[in-house]
Amino acid sequence: MTIDLTQFEGCNKKQNTIPIVIHTPSNQTVKGTKYVLEVLDRLEMEGVKFEKSIISNLSNTEVLQQMCKADIMIDQLLLPGGGKAASEALASGCVVLSLMGTTNINKLVIMITALS
Fold first, then answer.
1. pTM over 0.90, yes/no
2. 38 CB-near residues (< 8 Å, 6+ apart)
3. 8-state DSSP, 9
4. In terms of CATH, what superfamily is 18-115?
5. First to last CA, the chain
């Protein structure tokens, strides 16, 4: 995936006191947004401190600006491989969570079915 790294020249990563976690679904069903929200809500109930932001309906420029502020980006969890947003988040300095590979896809389907 080719991305223009000059878009991130103004990205000055600093360590946030409270981590900022973002999710940028182009399609909430395909990206697993329902499960992302369930896990983030559970972490909040357990007292884990972080800021969350579900980013949608913004221009690519606005999304990239949000990535520059974030610490962690949760990408797609139901389809293997990261998309363009994952590559952009990595370029901005975010840690990216994404499903990479199909080795455990059957286990994932069982887990998702159990959560539904």
1. no
2. 115
3. T
4. Glycogen Phosphorylase B; (3.40.50.2000)
5. 33
